Protein: NDUC2 dehydrogenase
Organism: Nothocercus nigrocapillus
Amino acid sequence: VVLFVPNDGFGLSRCNPGVHRQILFTTVGWFVGYHLTKRAEYVHAKRDRELFEYVRQHPEDFKIKEKKRMGDLLEDFYPVR
C-alpha cells in the first residue's frame, strides 16, 4: 500500500526543496532587492535635489553661523576651597 503525501505540488517535500528552487528564489530575491534599492536611491536623490534647490533659492533662511571658540562655550572656572 502506497500512501500519497502532498508535497507543495513540485514533487519534492518541504524539507528538501532542491537546488533548482533555491537558485530560483535566490534569483528572484536578488532581482527584487536590486530594483527596490535602485528605487530607494532615486527617491533619496530626488529629495536631495529638491532640498538643495530650496536652500539655494532661500539663502536668508540658511545663514552660515560664526564658528564658536571652545572658550566661549565653556563657563568660567572658579575653584572652590
Q: What stands out?
A: Residues 18-56 form one domain. The two ends are 98 Å apart (CA to CA). The helical segments are 19-57, 70-73. The CA atoms of residues 55 and 62 lie 7 Å apart.
